[in-house]
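Repro case for the chain-ordering regression, as requested:
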Amino acid sequence: MSTATSPLDHVPHEHAAEEHGPFAWVATVDHKRIGILYLFTSLFFFAIGGIEALVIRLQLARPNNTLVAPDTFNQLFTMHGTTMIFLVVMPTLVGFGNYVVPLMIGARDMAFPRLNAMSYWLLPFGGFLLHFSVMAGGAPAGGWFSYTPLTETPFSSTPGTDYWVLALLVLGVGSVATAINFIATILTLRAPGMTMGRLPLFVWMTFVTSILVVLALPVLNASIVMLLVDRQLDAHFFLSTGGGNAILWQHFFWTFGHPEVYILALPAFGMISEVIPVFSRKPIFGHAFVAASTVAIAILSFGVWAHHMFAVGLGRTADVFFVVASMLIAVPTGVKIFNWIATMWRGSIRFTTSMLFATAFLVEFVIGGLSGITLAAAPIDWQVTDTYYIVAHFHYVAFGGTAFGVLAGLYYWFPKMSGRLLSERLGRWNFWLMVLGFNLTFFVQHFLGILGMPRRVFTYPDLPWWGTLNLISTVGAVFMGLASLLLVANVLHSMRRGQLAGDNPWDAWTLEWATTSPPPHDNFSEVPPVRGRRPLWDLAHAGGSTPPAASTSTAQRVLDKGAVAVWCFIASEAGFFLILIIAYVFFNLAGQEPVGPSSSNVLDVKKTAAFTACLFASSGTLWLSERSLHKDQTRPAAVWLVLTIGLGAVFMVGQGAEYLGLYQRGVGVATNLFATTFFTLTGFHGLHVTAGLFVLAIVLGLVLSRDFRGRRASLLRAVGLYWHFVDVVWLVVFSVVYLKAGR
Amino acid sequence: MTTWKLLMTCWALDPLALAVCVAAPIAYVAQRAGRSGARPLPFALALLIFALALASPIGQLADGYLFSAHMLQHLLLVLVVPPLALMGLAPALGPAAQRGISRLLFRPVIAWGLGVGAMWLWHEPTLCDAASQSPLVHRVQELSLLAMGTAFWWPILAPRGASRLPPLGGVVYLFTACTACTLLGILITFSPVQVCSVFAHPVDRLGVMQLVRDGWGLTAQNDQQIGGLLMWVPACLVYGAGILGVVGRMLREHADDGAMTTEGTP
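-- result from build under test --
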């Protein structure tokens, strides 16, 4: 229960240095500071991505314009897309989540504060890698989806795509780490009484989004690793010249890409679900429906990627199924829209800037959703795919939807973060300029698309209406630029001179408004009791009989945050290996065997079986070690650990010997697709075993050096889970690669 | 033969379907006497779909003609009939019997294996061919699919809350099963080789192949693709509906106001 640590018995000294030292912001592990770092970093990249967009629009303002060269134009739209998705929208949503989620559930920090800091610092690092390409010979120019074979070395010879891959790998690791952190935080650190059913919708949607990130990002990571192997090691995963398959890239990319759309959208839905009820003075209409439809969207998102590929020619049969499945997404999304409207219905609405943006979100997002439904019909898609109709559609979803949602969230939570309100007067200018600019820019692009103007062209001939519509679009973009400047001015001005906010300026209901603005280092001096979905409302109307708060709180402490994190990590790694295994099966087992070396003529099944036995035995010894440790027998535990490490090392030696033998027979990564897929799959498994060996060595050191009881035991359990997982992966790899070879 | 004629005439009096459809309602009514809360509608729906899967043209075409019809039958027997029947059973089973079933047969890992196995096992080319050639094997297939489907759905829909998986576990259980099923669907959809060679050259006892190949324009390749896509997309939706059900149950049980009691939790 509310462990009433008053600010006085709390020791502020240990934090004092951390809060004010020269590296206070660099070294911070406080979720609030990290959240603000995220937000300012994404604001910085938003400026870069926005300037890129303005240059694109200026180039397209007139027919046959020559402001930028074609190749520069390609780099601009690639960088704009990549920047906005990976360096602006995702970090912004993570930033808000970081700041608000622990507060909303009554926690003191995220589950893993240091991991949180690492996730953040990977963001500037990834952004730096991406932009370093400009100095290294040219930015990536193959679009944010990097379609092969265009992005393969023969067609993109500058290192731009390599930097794109590296940057996305770094950002991907950061995103997965944050997602795991969110899941562990939400599952294990909720205040008493805060059941999953009472979670504020923003927290719920961050939770669902995090699951999507954990499952979808590894797919991207695995496929860009393959692209990197193609580019750096002359392999042919996606190049038809060596038997590879360019369409496979599209399948992999959109398996990630479609869930990514919802990763970008769902948290914004969550913000809207917080803002609309507070400013309508009504609880959200159909809380469970909003929550459950989020899950429905998340599930469907994994089943519809092929609708990005109607123009590829998957065949009528496949098209029909994906048309229907894609249209189904309109159902849970529509449910949400109606819930939000019903919440506003007959509410006493206060049109603050935040609420204005939320209302605009409803309108713009419905337009984007409707154009999305038209695109789900394959024949319409064939007509307008790769035209400005698509550009209009996804900007209505990503800007009219996500960005407006985020702006609503910013005006809503800024007082909590800074202690001061954003100026409403500037806010109104900001809002109307943004709405006007946005619709001018993108609404006309629907018409341009239907008139046949293709995307990603650096200029266009002077056809009827094209010049006029494009000019309107460019004027709109300038308005959006001005609106963004106003926003920055408002933030900078209000941070210092804004009206003081107080704890709860909006008279809102969720826990973050129960503490001071900005909150103290440990967030709460006392977490209010949670007896429903609106704890502060319950607190204010506490008259009469209040039911016991802790009725369901006993069950929620059972989960161990370390175990949750390891299981999420395993799920994510499983996704990574699944894609590598699918690539192996696709190239080796689905059709005829590749010419040249293949699993049946170069692999020695018996020898590998012996090394495999060693690896499996190591799982057994690790289990014995865990058991000894559980009984506080440190010495046998250490012996079993040494044995585990030894067996793992033997396996690695076996793999090394196998690689050496293959190398001596002239089989390298680039020899043929068997060799490419074999080395990629087993190599990554080997890397994981090696990493596991290092971690086990660290654990061994800890066991030998000091008392290992207590919290350390859960460390060994976590490491053990990972090690068993690596063995299970090898079980699959061994069956698919070696045992299938015998047939 | 026309499509209409096919729909009207291709019905078989399946003895198994007939027996079940007569016996089950009687047993259901007898069991239900004196107990409240049973839901006859899902139970009746389960019986109806079961009968359709076996006796209707779906069942006939599944018998060596169309891979897609076979897949439809397969999915109905694993993913639709068992969950509906379990939903209808609510209190019809005594608590002791339920605990017994849960403890003896249906550990989640095993149930998961059976549910996923039902998908993969019977699409092993030899088994798939055997099932569509020998009536005996076909019968074994149908019954085993029902049994494995029931085992699979038990941890999610067991009439007593205590036998069910906790919500998060249930979501993971269904999602991983969906992934495994999707993978097979993708494999079948894009596989250039015939999964069950029987369906490539059916023995035309009913005289419908001309209608299928020329009238409907279904080639053997097309037919297999539809089968794969059925397993890939709609099957996934069933698992998805299951996940939604589990999440909905969780949200309902941890109700808005503390005043509302939690129901269903032990």
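Ordering looks correct now. Residues 167-190 of chain B form the longest helix (24 residues).
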